[in-house]
Amino acid sequence: MDLAEIWRVMRRRWYVLLPGLLLTAALTTAVHLLIPVEYQSQSTVTLLNSSKATVAFDGNPFLSTQASLTGMADGLARNLNSDGAKADLKALGVTGKHEVKIADNAQGPFMWLTVTGTDPAAVLTSDELLVAYAEKRLKEFQTQQSVAPDAMIRMATIVPPQKPEPQTKTRLQYIVMVGALGFVLSLVAVFFVEARKRNPRGKNRPVPAETPAAPFAASATAAAGMPVATDETMALRTVGPGAGGSP
Fold this sequence. Notes:
- The chain crosses the membrane at residues 172-193.
- The chain is 58% helix and 14% strand.
- By secondary structure, the chain is of the alpha+beta class.
- Strands 1, 2, 3, 4 and 5 form a 5-stranded antiparallel sheet that branches.
- A hairpin with a 7-residue loop joins strand 2 and strand 3 (110-117).
- The longest helix has 33 residues, at 213-245.
């Protein structure tokens, strides 16, 4: 079946296709309205060596990065993603979903702090609270280990919390899925009706073969006549010569 034939079938069965397309449009509109747009704000922080460790570098912490700082960044990120941290952040007023991880392709102890939600203003505020909470947790870790203040690892903000950006990918995916599924089901319904109209029930049912009656009747007649013909021949042979000479 080529495209021209498909188009002709769609035009011929428009009364099936049109309701399907209208229903698909209604469903896509419902998805568009029911699934809210999410907004995301992200900030970038880095861990810096202690002021005591940077003396040899004239106090410049960016010249004294160590591999241990990356390990500390990984541990801090895991703690900030824990259930306990989520409860603390919720009590501080953080809304939406937050995530902390080491930055992709990072060349040092850089971390991404991300907050996602449906309210742009609340998302931005939550990301700011998350940055402050991360710095607080870093200090608490070291205080628990009785680290001297001048030997503590520090945190610096590289990129402050950014203006929340809309994340429409998920909603767009749902809209495309619903629209494609509705269109395909509408076409299936069209061709199903077309097939039923072309082949109505019982039209192409094969007629049962009948037993030929004429040959059977001829055979029966022949079989029944054979004894009669034989009897007549025998009677003629018996009566013929004797009957001609009697008075």
